[in-house]
Amino acid sequence: MELHTLFVLAVMIFAGMAMGRLAKLVRLPNVTGYLVAGLLLGPAVTGFVSADMLSGFDIISEVALGFIAFSIGNEFKVSYFKRVGVTPILIAVFESLFAILFVLGVLLAIGIEPSFAIVLSSIAAATAPAATIMVINQYKAKGPVTETLLSVVAIDDATALAMFSISVAIAQAIKNPAAVSLKTALLDPLWEIFGALIVGGIIGMLFCIPLRWFKKDGNRLALIIAFVFLGVGIADMFGFSSLLTCMAIGAVFANFSSQLPHIMKLTDGLTPPIFMLFFIISGAELQLSVVPTVGIVGIIYVVMRVVGKICGASFGALLCKADKKIRRYLGPALIPQAGVAIGLSLVATQVVPEYGAQIRAIILCGTLIYELIGPVVTKISLTKAGEIKQDK
After folding, report:
1. Do 234 and 199 form a contact (C-beta atoms < 8 A)?
2. b (16+ CB within 10 A) / e for 173-182
3. pLDDT tens for each residue of 298-331
4. How confident is the model over 258-298, as pLDDT tens digits?
5. How far is residue 232's CA from residue 274's CA, in Å, rounded to a whole number?
6. Per residue in 200-211, is it b (16+ CB within 10 Å) or e — as a string?
């Protein structure tokens, strides 16, 4: 008998709630429980949720990431950047750059083919904001490290896309110099990044208008959903980053509307089950089978990316004379890596097709490791920074 989609989703939610509570009992973040629940239900373990069914849940993941990005964007107030200056931007640039350089340096040192090493290492810049946001929300973390972390994971998407595009152009120049064009090296990433920011900014301005006439909670909740859906939909249609688009919506709305606290309260009441399903689906997509296949190159990628993120964040914070706690504890909270990296790995297989399967396996293995340990490390880092006051 074929299982009904709604039945499967219901079981996933029940499993997520149970594993989330179990994770809490052993002092782990809820998101870790959700990921484990998905792993147990997915093709890698029980197969209750099939691979074909998972592909049909893509829209849930898109919606969840849209709301996560919208929430992050709300932190980008002009008053915040007047206070902290360019610190989050420089930290995001250096943590992305160091992650790439540390992985690349070791790969080249052991004799890995340059174009393969460059393309693989370029994916190391990407960081997944979703797990980080869930940990911050669960424990109500607050302080300079948390504040900077929210900004860095938001900016990271833009820096990762830009650095990946540049790295791909370099790799293509090594393999086939005649194939490299200005469009590939410069215009495509600019289109993806600045197109997203411009469109998101326009949508954010439009979002402010109907709130004057629609004041009931139900109507405003409908508007929130409609504008986030609009951002994700337009981004997908025109090849923009949906994360950056929805971040721009949130940022512009936060700076031009006095209704932000009320809108975020409504959003926070809507999103928990969506986020739970997103992480359960992410857990179900994790593939245990890729772990034995990654070899020494995979181990170097997984380890050196983390080392690079930590050193880069610390260097950027030191350069900006940021708080000592930011220098010490921000880097480890940047471990999670998921959707963006997997998407970039698909592009990478087109650049170096002969290494496509190996790159895919390494990134999937990295995702498995980073998503399971990342939330735990983020919690530990914020606790040591004194920004999680008690275990909740």
Report:
1. yes
2. bebeeeebee
3. 889 889 999 999 999 999 989 888 888 898 899 8
4. 888 888 888 888 888 988 898 888 888 777 776 676 788 88
5. 15
6. bbebbeebeeeb
> Amino acid identity, residue 185?
A
3-state secondary structure 34-95: HHHHHHHHCCCCCCCCCHHHHHCCHHHHHHHHHHHHHHHHCCCCHHHHHHHCCHHHHHHHHH
Q: For residues 387 and 392, give the distance between their C-alpha atoms in angstroms, rounded to a whole number.
A: 13
Q: Which two tokens stand for residue 366?
A: 């990295």
Which token pair is 63?
Answer: 């919606």
Here the tokens at position 298 are 């995979």
CB atoms within 10 A of CB 59: 10
What is the rounded distance in angstroms from the CA atom of residue 309 to the CA atom of residue 91?
10
pTM of the model: 0.75
φ, ψ for residue 320 (rounded to 5)?
A: -90, 5
